[in-house]
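A reminder from the course coordinator: this example appears on the midterm review sheet, so study it carefully.

Given structure:
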């Protein structure tokens, strides 16, 4: 299976991704954990460029193309080989984040993103996408408490409103693939929600 975890800032993706990884391994799955942008040596270098606050003047089309450049390499070197070997891939963000951030947030045409998605991925799509949904103000407060702001976290509130709305629209459009988790609850309750989703979806 190919499982992705999505969501805005401060939603607890890292903590809850680790929970999902433990669950999958307890079920006897051979799990590859990775992230986007990143996942490879080249991808991590591109990630640094994309998140660097010093690159605030980056053209949004350049940003989109760098995301897909990192993704193409990631798919070729990590994700597709793991899936071909029968492993479960668990990825912190994937192309849905591009639709949310570069499409919803930046306002780039969704049809342009779809063209790149089809070119880079072919027919490959996640089997399950877990969306950690959270009030924007709470999420940004958590993110700012955690570390210095990266280039995306410095955006205005309206940007993140559009990101969240795009995520929720995608979840509504693809209910078979998406599972929405209320990430505003306590960690214990969030992980109870995750456990229920995983029990329902993951074959024993």
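Designed residues:
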């Amino acid at each position: 299976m190919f499982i992705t975890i999505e969501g805005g800032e401060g939603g607890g993706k890292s903590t809850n991704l680790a929970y999902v990884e433990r669950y999958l391994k307890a079920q006897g799955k051979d799990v590859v954990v990775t992230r986007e942008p990143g996942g490879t040596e080249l991808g991590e270098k591109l990630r640094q460029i994309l998140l660097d606050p010093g690159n605030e003047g980056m053209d949004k089309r350049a940003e989109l193309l760098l995301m897909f450049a990192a993704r193409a390499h990631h798919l070729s070197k990590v994700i597709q080989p793991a899936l071909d070997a029968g492993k479960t891939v668990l990825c912190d963000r994937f192309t849905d984040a591009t639709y949310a951030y570069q499409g919803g947030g930046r306002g780039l045409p969704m049809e342009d993103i779809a063209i790149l998605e089809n070119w880079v991925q072919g027919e490959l799509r996640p089997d399950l996408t877990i969306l950690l949904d959270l009030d924007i103000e709470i999420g940004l407060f958590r993110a700012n408490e955690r570390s210095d702001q990266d280039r995306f976290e410095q955006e205005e509130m309206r940007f993140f409103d559009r990101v969240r709305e795009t995520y929720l629209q995608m979840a509504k459009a693809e209910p078979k693939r998406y599972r929405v988790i209320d990430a505003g609850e306590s960690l214990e309750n969030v992980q109870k929600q995750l456990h229920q989703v995983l029990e329902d979806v993951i074959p024993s």
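The chain has a mean pLDDT of 92. The domain at 2-201 is CATH 3.40.50.300 (Rossmann fold).
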